[in-house]
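dumping this here before i forget
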Amino acid sequence: MQQLDRELKGNEYPGRGIVIGRSGDGRYAVAAYFIMGRSANSRNRVFVEEGEGIRTEAFDPSKLEDPSLIIYAPVRVLGNVTIVTNGDQTDTIYDGLSAGKTFEQALRARKFEPDAPNYTPRISGIMRVEDGAFDFSMSILKSNDGNPSCCNRYTFSYDAPAAGEGRFLHTYEGDGSPLPSFQGEPQRVELAGDIDSFTELVWNSLNQENKVSLFVRYIDIATGRYETRIVNKMKD
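structure:
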């Protein structure tokens, strides 16, 4: 099991990342989602609450150059399912689940982002909390080692996650040109502390220059009630 803060500090540019797992005391289903940016357009963003989820918006609308791929709803809730993604596939999953499709079936309609030459992977996760039980799944859709003619699709499912254990999936292995896509299975990382200490750990471990926003949610597995924290580098 890896230490999440070390993984983050050791990667100057993981891009966008999702962490899902169970808190150390076993009480909470935990989700975190962060975004980073290298361009002024990417950095000109904040997370804001929208219903039970969140959306991105421009911190300074006058400086918004291109809303595609950066303005979307990363988190939406459908009944006992919380959806977390790095793009507008959040809506695709929401609509697919509503129509009776599985997580994997819903994502069949999507592939990696059309941002050549990076072809940024689409990473997604869903968490189910119901009747005192918790499970989650994660997905990554990526080009075939930079070849956009083929989309490689991977889904990972985790039943009854162990206390203090999470999985970390992010878009890039590090900085570069083009940016190298994430490789392998979601990393097994330790989850410890309450929502505030965990939020602080993640935020303080992200590269100071490149980090943009962070969302963290702790869902009480017994009751379904949740707490949320949002941290934005850009503030009024």
